[in-house]
Amino acid sequence: MGKYLFYVMRGEKLCFMHVLLNALDLSASGNEVKIIFEGQSVTLPPVLAGEGNALYKKALEDGLIAGVCLACAKKLGAYDEVSALGLNFLSDMSGHAGMRSYTEQGYSVITF
Question: What's the mean pLDDT in 34-46?
């Protein structure tokens, strides 16, 4: 089985729905999957949580959400809302969420 990291930069909800669909599908077939919110996408967790999005809830329950970029959450004003959701903040790359640790573990990186 494979290992996949969805490294999401775009803040469009429709685009992110495809991330969730693919991540959940890959995970359901036995692959290791993680999702990182970077760039504009850091604004999405509060929106998805607020609307009770079923795909987002499933990804959370399945442990697919690795975390949210700390620097971008602060810069884009999403820090407090994301923090209230209890998501992990990632800052291993000069304050941003890096992908190196995942590539070193054999993950294939998919960017959206």
Answer: 98
